[in-house]
Write a structure and sequence with these properties.
The chain is α/β, with parallel strands linked by helices. Helix content is about 40%, strand content about 20%. The protein has a single domain, classed as Rossmann fold (3-Layer(aba) Sandwich). The N and C termini lie far apart (about 40 Å).
Length: about 140
Amino acid sequence: MNPPSSAAPQAKKKILLVDDNDGLRLVLTRLLVRAGFEVQEARHGGEAIARHRQDPADVVVTDLIMPEKEGLETILELKRMQPKLKIIAMSGGGRVNARDYLTLAGALGAARTLAKPFSDTELLCAIQEVLNAPDPAPPTV
């Protein structure tokens, strides 16, 4: 079997971006599109799950503190639907330190975590890292 030709076009990787902050979602979407990704957006976990069911993403980048369905619950549900889904959790904190939320997100199956604020480079590197990583193991929860 021959390796794929380097001249063959590659399909754009699809990112599902989940954040209730419209401004941040817009800025991150523009960044990801410029970086060559196809981006779907969701304002909360319920919307994200519906979008992922309809058109699965390669990577989900989700905030943790959102109305209607928060990020930890969203991670659990997405992992039940697709155990090998690659998820990046992001948080600026809430009633407790952002690191506590991010640590829990990692335990629930997020492949990478980012504390807000983060740089464009940090987000893009995290996405490349999870795309290049072997499929994640199912969570032990």
